[in-house]
Each structure stands twice: as C-alpha cells, then as structure tokens.
Design goal:
43% helix, Nucleotidyltransferase, domain 5, globular, five-stranded mixed beta sheet, 209 residues
Length: 209
C-alpha cells in the first residue's frame, strides 16, 4: 500500500552514543483548500544560537520574516520541499505531508544522525527519528523548521496572487475563510485548489450536469 512508502507508525530504536547532528522537521499548509503542502528540515548550529525561536503560528509575520533570515544565515543547513496539489489529491493530505517531509530531510546538505518531527506521525526515513507532539513549541530546531516552512508557503501564496487576484491568496493563504469560500462559489476552483477537499469537491460535484 502507498502508506507504507511514506508513513511509519514506528521507527528504529533511539539508542545512540556520542554527538550527532539533529534536524528539526515541520510542515505548513495541511489545512488550506489550495496550494502545495510545504515541509522544512533545519539543522541548527549550536555555536550560533538564534534568539526568539517559537512556533511560527505564535509569531507575527514581521517576526517570522526576521527569524527566517536568521535561520537561513546561521543554521548549519536547511531544506524546503513540497508535495503538489496533484499528490495531495492522489495520496491524501497526510501521506502527501509525509512525502514532503521525506523530501526535505533528503534535501539537507548534511545528513542528520537524528530527526525530530513535529506531531505524532513519522515518515519513512533512513535515520533515527522521533515524533514530538507540539514539538514546534518545545524544540528549537522544530520551531526553526516551522518558521521556514510557514514563510516559504506564504511567499508561494503571494506569488500566485497576481494571477488570481479575485481569490485573495495573499490574505487568506489558501485557508477556507469566508472571503475565500465566497470567491470559490463565484469564480469556481483554480488549478491550485485541492479537488479532494470537501468544499472544493462539493463545488465540482455541483457543476456536473
């Protein structure tokens, strides 16, 4: 089954000796009705600590942007990846998120010895891994990953806003706000909308004669 390829309910033993590089991993964009889901992996540099790291959702856009630059400049390495709208519709959002996380981890310039992932699920990867519920509020490298993923996805939403100005992507970032739903009902789904998500699926079904 596809789920065995991307998602692991268990991971190998976390017993390890000696210092290792630790990567934090988080996603952005599981809930929106449109756009890819993003994931980021970050290995922080202990010799260059970054003050103010926190869950991206608890930060203002200005603070996120500032920390985004600091993380990019001062981490040992970071990687951003995504799963497309087509992959979300084909695999489901959970599996697509795991796939994006896989891609982000594999994209790191340095291979971590351990990976800490926000949430309660693990993608299938070839390094030791641990899922940490609310990890973006507890673990600095996961906080850093949450900021990178959030800013990258927000930038993506802003980049398509000019092509679809009636939908307001730069404001709602693809989430199902009242303004977004009204635009959907008036103009119909764009190529970036997730056809498997209920509000979009309902509109498409209603349009079928």
């Amino acid at each position: 089954m596809r789920s065995r390829k991307f998602l692991s309910a268990e991971q190998s033993s976390l017993n390890w000796d000696g210092p290792v590089l630790i990567a934090g991993v988080d996603e952005a964009g599981r809930g929106p009705l449109a756009g890819p889901v993003f994931a980021a992996a970050v290995i922080l540099d202990d010799l260059n600590p970054i003050a103010g790291l926190a869950d991206s959702k608890q930060l203002t856009a200005k603070k996120r942007a500032n920390l985004y630059g600091l993380i990019k400049a001062n981490s040992l390495c970071c990687s951003v990846a995504q799963s497309s709208v087509e992959e979300i519709d084909q695999l489901n959002i959970l599996q697509a998120t795991m796939l994006a996380m896989q891609r982000a981890i594999h994209g790191l310039r340095l291979k971590p010895g351990k990976v800490l992932i926000d949430g309660n699920r693990l993608p299938v990867i070839d390094v030791l891994a641990e899922a940490i519920v609310k990890g973006d509020t507890k673990v600095k490298c996961i906080s850093a990953a949450s900021i990178i993923a959030k800013v990258e996805r927000d930038l993506w939403c802003e980049s398509i806003d000019a092509s679809f100005p009636a939908y307001g992507f730069s404001q709602h970032k693809g989430y199902g706000t009242q303004a977004h739903l009204e635009a959907l009902h008036r103009w119909g789904p764009t190529v970036w909308h997730r056809k498997s998500f209920a509000p979009v699926a309902a509109l498409l079904a209603a349009s079928v004669p």
